[in-house]
Design goal:
The protein is 20% helix and 31% strand. The chain is of the alpha/beta class. It has one domain. The chain has a 7-stranded mixed sheet with strand order 1-3-2-4-5-6-7, with helices on one face. It holds the Pfam family Staygreen.
Length: 156
């Protein structure tokens, strides 16, 4: 069990992003350092592909609009790392365990945006587990963003 310390989160708002807008396109790239435990969140119009490492342990997320004032957050994780099925199974478990922390980091890191957009608190969260193995390739509903609003201050 780990506790997310928001002082270990570095946030980078890239050009075109403010605390109020845009909702779309607004994309999140969450990476971390294995050595320090530091989390790095980039909020941008495009994914921060320059921050993605060969280990592919990042969480990518974006807002989608399904109609007037009907938004969803879609997050993507790469379950396989071209290391075989056994490694994919371990990565799958790792992502399941760490996703609440990752979603809390997104909420915390972009908290001024969420403060200015309270309608997004009830936005559904969909996680897309990407894998070449059918048992790990799936889409799951993970509740609403409000459920992760305080996850950065409680045990995960």
């Amino acid at each position: 069990m780990s506790i997310f310390d928001k002082t270990n989160l570095s946030v980078n708002l890239r050009p075109g992003i403010t605390a109020c807008q845009p909702i779309i396109p607004r994309r999140y790239t969450l990476t971390h350092s294995d050595q320090t435990g530091q989390l790095f969140l980039s909020v941008a119009l495009q994914y921060a592909t320059d921050e993605i490492t060969p280990s592919r342990d990042e969480v990518l997320a974006e807002w989608r609009c399904l109609g007037p004032r009907n938004f969803q957050l879609h997050a993507y994780v790469c379950v396989d790392n071209h290391s075989g099925k056994k490694e994919a199974a371990l990565r799958n478990k790792h992502f399941i365990r760490r996703l609440p922390l990752a979603l809390g980091a997104i909420f915390c890191g972009d908290r001024y945006f969420f403060y200015n957009r309270p309608e997004l608190h009830m936005a559904p969260v969909w996680i897309h587990f990407q894998s070449c193995y059918p048992e790990f390739c799936r889409d799951e509903y993970w509740g609403v963003m409000a459920e992760y609003a305080n996850s950065y201050s409680r045990k995960i």
